[in-house]
Design brief:
By secondary structure, the chain is of the alpha+beta class. Helices cover about 15% and strands about 35% of the residues.
Length: about 270
């Protein structure tokens, strides 16, 4: 068992505070997950389009009944604030930036941290002050790469790779298996389409892991079947392990990506 801290500040994340008498009501009406589950804890959630397609994914920290912090990719901060303000209308809610940081770690859980709600094997997350200094940064300089390798190995989708705004259906990415969507909380934006896909429809695509994957760090790569038909897209890879969306119709046959014949490791998030 790893009994030491290995941690780093995740510079790719930024924080938004959602605060006020109506903050909980606002979030409960638009988030895919149940905000009631975030008292003094953390949940993984998202916001969808009315057509049920992915817009954002993030973590929500519950710091009180009227005080929530959203932990999101820094590229999405301004867009998310615009979306929140669009739904806020005249509610008693204040949306603002905060300067705290996100500390990620593996090994022994930090006393103030929470296991990643998507999968505890990915590690833990902690809110720290802007002045926090990571004295172990040199020793753990390869930990950023390790986190990405763990993410791919655990088939956890990521914004800009597997999760594409206005395109992705979250159930094809296994949001329900990642504790990111609640089917018992009631209505949320895109809920009707998502519930129908869960209970009445058969998913056409799924997220798969592959051996012998080509490097796709600079761009996504098309996956073809033996007949040269497009079967899916490889969106992430590390150390020859790839992650991508593939049509179930083709996942049992020969798949080729960038000249490499792929070997499906296991069906995931189905």
């Amino acid at each position: 068992m790893d009994t030491e801290f290995r941690q780093f500040i995740d510079e790719s994340r930024r924080l938004i505070r959602v605060r006020g008498k109506d903050a909980k009501k606002l979030l409960q009406g638009i988030l895919t997950n149940d905000i009631d589950e975030v008292t003094d804890s953390i949940i993984y959630s998202g916001i969808l389009t009315p057509q049920g397609k992915y817009l954002y994914d993030f973590f929500v920290w519950g710091l009180g009944a009227e005080n929530f912090v959203i932990d999101i990719d820094k590229e999405r901060v301004e867009d998310l604030k615009k979306t929140l303000n669009l739904y806020r209308l005249r509610s008693d809610v204040v949306i603002s930036d905060i300067n705290q940081k996100i500390l990620l770690g593996v090994g022994m859980l930090s006393p103030s941290g929470f296991s990643d709600p998507r999968n505890p094997e990915l590690g833990w997350r902690e809110l720290v002050e802007e002045t926090f200094e990571d004295k172990s940064s040199i020793r753990n300089r390869d930990l950023v790469k390790e986190f990405e390798e763990r993410r791919i190995g655990l088939a956890i989708p990521k914004y800009g790779h597997e999760l594409i705004p206005n395109e992705t259906f979250i159930l094809e990415m296994g949001f329900d298996k990642l504790n990111g969507v609640s089917f018992s909380k009631g209505c949320f934006v895109g809920q009707e389409v998502t519930a129908r896909m869960k209970h009445k429809a058969t998913l056409k695509n799924g997220l798969f892991r592959f051996k012998n994957a080509p490097d796709c760090s600079s761009s996504r790569k098309i996956i073809y079947n033996a007949k040269g038909q497009k079967a899916g897209v490889m969106s992430s890879s590390a150390n020859g392990i790839g992650l991508g969306l593939v049509k179930f119709l083709y996942n049992k046959g020969k798949l080729i990506c960038d000249g490499n014949e792929l070997d499906v490791i296991v069906e995931t998030n189905i």
